[in-house]
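step 3/5: co-fold with zinc ion
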Amino acid sequence: MGPGAFKSCPSSPETLLKYYRCRYPVGFDAGFRRAIMNIGTARADPGEVSQGWLDVTDLPTGGTERLPVVVVAGEHEGPTLWVTASLHGNEVTPLAVAQDLVRSLSPTDLRGTLIAVPILNPAGLRLTKRRSYYHRDDPNRYFPALDREGTPEDEERAKPPRTQERIDRRVHDAIAESANALLDLHTAQVGSLPYLIRDQVCFGPERDRETAEELNETFDAVLSAMGLPVVNEFPVPEYFERNFHRTLSGSVLNTLGIPAATVELGGHTVVDEAVRERALCGLARVMATLDMLDGPGTLDTPDVFGAFGAVSDRTSNGTNANETATADSIDSPVSHPVKRHDGPRVSNTGIVRHRLEPGDIVEAGDPVAEVVTPHGEVTETVESAHDGYVLARKPGVSVYANDAIYSMAVRDDSDRVVPRDGDGE
Ligand SMILES: [Zn+2]
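step 4/5: write tokens
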């Protein structure tokens, strides 16, 4: 796919502009707000780049926990895109992507504003752990949200919010004041295929069905531009049972009504350079779809890589850094829609021998793994119950009865716009 890749996106920038003008009629008369943008101590006039900090909590040992923020304010009017990263502290390719994106953007070429937060969970990052250490909570389950009846969940709580929830609220409030779209960058299991998670859009007391359909259409356009396989999120009601409506993207999409998605950029713990390059290119295409950039070629990637050069500079095919910015997208291995699925599950306790790799296609009934004894004798052949493909293997080889052994993307025919209190599929 070449520089024109984003043009295959089903919604034109004009459609998106119409959407935003309709959504923000006040102050958007000439298109978009073009004001001084400040997040925490980062404060940028149009045409400026500002680095700063967003204070999120005091620390018992003195000082303050603070999140790094970069505001790139374009010289020209346009929407505000948030790119957030490393909400799980061991997911580090996103951190590199967010840093490189802001370093490769020029405010002169930019219409609108990019707000990047490369480290959303400093307490997790210091330890290379998913969770923050304040109370060992998962930071991606505490963003403000409406429950299935459309009531704000925090109003019903008996207990006051703990530190991580207070931090999540602080971030959420900053996003609510400024964002037109958000991409929250994560990683999945070791060796995972990169993919995008697409939440269902709920309608109910907070928005009618027509508005939800419109939001879903805009959301689709943003997702297509990223150039990664799209995997539908666990459907309602499992979505609510797993607290996924309180993830950052779930909260921004379904509570604030702003297009938002979780992007899974391969595996955790170390930066995957090939995935980092693809993600930068995908984000440039998203920004082109939002009419913020002319295209991926606008990114000044050589500056990012400095003396080291891009990964593809160092490969034998001699691809240069500028071509890197138009690197191929990753297509879905299958043509039908898919949703996330944890499975299949084993019946026996033992040692699992996975037989499939990330990206492998399966049909219902296909053998996918064996369970063996400590001496290596097979006690069970595990079959897939669904059509789909493998996203990743679950970590480890020790399994107990009913453990899921793969993260899968399986055939899905559910509606993408659903009643908040409905039964989903
Ligand atoms: Zn994550």
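step 5/5: annotate
The longest strand covers residues 49-58.
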